[in-house]
């Protein structure tokens, strides 16, 4: 697939809070696709979502994420990996956070549906998945986030 350059915008504290609220009470491996400076991964770990990891291609942001993890005392507890999200297998991920541009959403939707387990939940920030119906949503405007339960999305797609 094409890899459009996604401009980096750090999530606001409200976006982070809304995202984690939609994952509250869940368990299992949590990944942030395009994890930026790592703030969502660190918050996920703090709230008990483990293992928590982020995939990010920008070396400066990876550096910043690792520094923030170290500063928070989470060094070695969370992971930030320089990997192309199109090449990562997501079949063991139960919680997926996606704050990526609209152009990435359609090919990503296909990848997530093909790989994620039935009990997985995807939380999208800034832009919803155009072809999916969210199971819930929180916030307004730029702070809005949408949650999708993969089992429901698959049922709808059939």
UniProtKB/TrEMBL annotation:
<dbReference type="GO" id="GO:0032259">
    <property type="term" value="P:methylation"/>
</dbReference>
<keyword id="KW-0489">Methyltransferase</keyword>
<dbReference type="InterPro" id="IPR026170">
    <property type="entry name" value="FAM173A/B"/>
</dbReference>
<dbReference type="GO" id="GO:0016279">
    <property type="term" value="F:protein-lysine N-methyltransferase activity"/>
</dbReference>
<dbReference type="GO" id="GO:1905706">
    <property type="term" value="P:regulation of mitochondrial ATP synthesis coupled proton transport"/>
</dbReference>
<dbReference type="InterPro" id="IPR029063">
    <property type="entry name" value="SAM-dependent_MTases_sf"/>
</dbReference>
<dbReference type="GO" id="GO:0005739">
    <property type="term" value="C:mitochondrion"/>
</dbReference>
<protein>
    <submittedName>
        <fullName>F173A methyltransferase</fullName>
    </submittedName>
</protein>
<comment type="similarity">
    <text>Belongs to the ANT/ATPSC lysine N-methyltransferase family.</text>
</comment>
<keyword id="KW-0949">S-adenosyl-L-methionine</keyword>
<keyword id="KW-0808">Transferase</keyword>
